[in-house]
From TrEMBL:
The lineage of its organism: Bacteria, Bacillati, Bacillota, Clostridia, Lachnospirales. It comes from the Bacteria. SUPFAM superfamilies: Sortase. Signal peptide: none annotated. This is Sortase B.
Amino acid sequence: MAENKRFIIGGFEFETYYEYRAAQEDVKKIECINAELDIQDPEVALRLYNDIRDGIITFNSPIGKQYVDHVADIVANKSAGMLDDREIIEEAAGKAKSSRLFGLIFVGIAAVLIVIFAGIEIKEIAETRKIAKLQESVQKASNTNNSQNNVKIDNEIDDIGTVEDSNAGQSEENNSPAKVIEDDLINSPWDTHYTEGEREILPELTELYSVNHDLVGVLEVVDTDINYPVVQTPNDPEYYLRRDFYGNDSTGGTLFVDYRCDILNPTTNTIIYGHNMRKGTMFGGLKRYLNHDYYQAHKKIIFKTLYEEQEYEVVGVGLSEVGYDDDDTYKYYDFIDAITGAELQEFLDNIQSLSAFDETIDISSTDKILTLSTCNTYKEDGRMFIVAKRVK
């Protein structure tokens, strides 16, 4: 008789694959929360505990339960001065007390993880500085003014959370209609038909490319802190999700292009993914675009691919969520290439309905699109995206 397969995560053993998958999902949620929030801050911990208490954030495994106990313990110990939430704090204290043993175990684990994460963050800063030096050499070799030598590495954005909270619920009612595509077929002046090896790598990117052949370009959102190398690994799409540009373990990961997109002959839509880091690194600063004034003042994006410099204009900001196979949630991140006007129209209709602002997203049948995608905590499994159209 074949031996039963064991499903184990971090010392927890699960009897079924479904329980194991639930634990994996909880671990991902915990990693995302820890990356975005400082739960040692009493106000942050209390807000997080309220979201868990109200069912906005849910966990479905013993690992998740331990994490909830840990958050409750922080609230109970550090939030005593918040008298307006006394009832909730006392409830958290009771929960923490009833699960003290689990809490102590988790705190011990958390302490170890904090040390590890601190080490990773220091290492990440050092590695990112290496990239910055490489990008400085890129700037010297380039005749264009992309300000790549002004990249901010250790950027702290103190008001990031406030910006997100003040706009998270799509406060403006979106009544603007989607633009109508009348063309039957898509035909863009930016379409190309090169074969592999026919295009030469830009001289200013050769040094960066020599460091990592997964490089496909450098993304700069002008007048912001976003100015990073971008990679792509079609055979292992999420390889850089938790790895830095050098392939080392990294909480912040590296910006990467969807494996279905083509850099040599660009698809209708090029999607770049990045983590929404609490300190504003990677795509952490994108949540500022939920402020309409900021959105209006930061429209220019430069995507210097291996082969050419492309300039884009931001035309839309949207909030969505992860869609699963068994629901009808529109998956904006599945729109890669359009042949017909009807395909583009479906995309426009849906992102218009997801728009954070009450204005028509200006995209036509001749446009190439760039989409920047990241997490957003306005709801569980929330996503935020920036849509831009090519102008040069």
